[in-house]
Amino acid sequence: MDTDHEKSILVTGATGKTGGHAVRLLLRDGLRVRALVHREDERSEQLAAAGAEVVRGDLHDLDDVGGATRDVGSAYFVHPIAPGLIEATVIFAQAAAENGVDAIVNMSQISARREAKSDAARQHWLAERVLDRFPAQVTHLRPTFFAEWLIVYGEYDEKGGVLRFPMGDGRHAPIAGEDLGRLAAAIVANPGPHAAKTYPIFGPVELHHDEIAARVSKALGRPVRYEPISPATFADILRGRGWDPHRIQHLRNVAIDYQNGIFAGTNDVIETITGRPPMGVEEFVERNRREFDRASR
């Protein structure tokens, strides 16, 4: 059944790729939304202007989370790929239980497994098990790689680009943060039918990175190619960019998972739950052309 809409819906990570879209969609549907942000900036100001109750807080602070979950009916919980996920999950579950939150929608990842070599992936699996002990409804979302990878990790200039990734001949169906935010909004607004379920989340078409590069190239109107590299070389590139060790360890190991098929697959979860299929790679590039142009500069 629907959550209690006399209470607010809490969205954590509310200025992020999935949380921001979820907030806007929930507000569009006339729901009361509390947006938890780590810091106030232009993005949080835009959410407040749209009608969200914006609260500043730290997911690792029990008092902050306790205040954020007060008078909340359901919540979307998302934590970045960063140290502290287990602590944040325990704090969130405790605060939610104390305040009588009815349901939690948890952002996990498709590589979350007990035997995962990635520290972050194993921590996501443990976080799921913690939340499974929560005294109300919990739904886990396990997305494959985001389409936003193409912006963050691709290398572009005005002449073209290269996807220098350690993915071998593996395949996946890239999923856009916007589509995942739409799914999270639909579930957190009506969590009952999704209680105790774990959803693998994919984009519409499973592709090899040669095919992904070809679709990015077509949408941008300039050549983009895939250049396979080793996980060790990818780690060196990220280290040179100043990325933190936790994320590098994660990405190096999930690259091996990717080659072994862990990220592969497709399904109709997003279309079934939201009524609209997720966007493909070309549409994603076209809708985010400004971000690709910025990456080129």
Automatic annotation (TrEMBL):
SUPFAM superfamilies linked to this entry: NAD(P)-binding Rossmann-fold domains
Protein's name in the database: Uncharacterized protein YbjT (DUF2867 family)
Positions of the NmrA-like domain: 6-237
InterPro entries tied to this protein: Ergot_Alk_Oxidoreductase, NAD(P)-bd_dom_sf, NmrA-like
Pfam family, one: NmrA
